[in-house]
Write a structure and sequence with these properties.
two-stranded antiparallel sheet, 3 domains, 288 residues, 3-stranded parallel beta sheet, single chain, alpha/beta, Rossmann fold
Length: 288
């Protein structure tokens, strides 16, 4: 606790007087942690004390950013803090990169630069100076504890004010994208295999050359068509629970997960109609 009469000075005058005094820089380095933001209290050229402000890093946030990194998401911290404080916080939080002493205009420009490069950008913020960048980003996530301007500019508002929710938003988005891709791939592959099975059986009588393509040796053209209709009626309800539950998202990039699911559901869609239609055709043949 320092006692005395604090006076305000212009930044240029204050900086020159502290520089001449020579004690401010050494005192700051000796007694303040790198992540602290110092507020100096001085009278004329004499430093009376330093008030240290420090941002609190929520527990587990570094692990969350590590998971985002495994999913192929680059994290960038944009802050108005000085470079020393920004570097310390970025290292503790585990972000990939940081920009210090950023103005609202600089934040907006960074968002536009990433979008111009073809990247999807998510922005998370809580201050009025974050509002332009939140509005520009493809996904703007504002904290409920933030300002009204930030909440109105964002696409989503986190009622818990938990930055870790960004990972949940990314996971849900990837799950929706990959589930849609898996279902589309399965449907297309399933249709290709299904028509390859039933068309030779249908046209074998009028075009005998197609008879060699009837690999399943179906009972009759009528049973082939009916088997395909029954197969469709069984497959569509079976896919509904999968569509509602979605594909499980792993800690991998979206492209890697998409390739994996395209392979699984594409091959599955090609192979499933052959045994299924054959079994249905056998059952129909026994009834006819």
């Amino acid at each position: 606790m320092a006692q005395g009469r604090a006076q305000r000075h212009r930044p240029a005058d204050t900086g020159s007087r502290w520089s001449r005094a020579g004690g401010f820089r050494d005192a700051g380095r000796a007694h303040l942690a790198p992540r602290c933001h110092p507020l100096a209290v001085a009278e004329e050229a004499r430093l009376l004390g330093v008030i240290a402000l420090s941002d609190v890093i929520k527990p587990g946030i570094a692990e969350r950013f590590a998971q985002l990194r495994q999913m192929g998401v680059k994290t960038l911290m944009i802050t108005g803090d000085n470079p020393i404080t920004a570097a310390a916080i970025a290292a503790e939080a585990g972000v990939d990169d940081y920009v210090a002493e950023a103005t609202p205009e600089r934040k907006l420009a960074l968002i536009r630069e990433e979008q111009a490069a073809g990247r999807l950008v998510a922005m998370m913020g809580d201050g009025t100076n974050d509002a332009p960048a939140l509005a520009q980003a493809d996904l703007g996530l504002a904290m409920n504890s933030g300002t009204q301007a930030a909440r109105e500019a964002a696409n989503m508002v986190d009622l818990d004010s938990d930055p870790g929710k960004l990972l949940s938003a990314v996971e849900i988005g990837k799950q929706l994208l990959i589930t849609r891709g898996a279902l589309t791939t399965f449907s297309l592959a399933n249709d290709v295999a299904k028509y390859f099975v039933i068309l030779p059986a249908i046209f074998a009588a009028s075009a005998p050359a197609l008879g060699s393509l009837d690999v399943l040796d179906l009972h009759s053209p009528q049973s082939a068509v009916l088997a395909a209709v029954i197969f469709n009626a069984l497959v569509i309800p079976a896919l509904i629970p999968f569509a509602l539950r979605g594909v499980r998202v792993h800690a991998a990039s979206a492209s890697a997960m998409l390739r994996r699911n395209l392979l699984i559901y594409g091959v599955g869609g090609l192979l499933l109609p052959f045994p299924a239609i054959k079994l249905i055709d056998l059952a129909l043949g026994a009834l006819m």
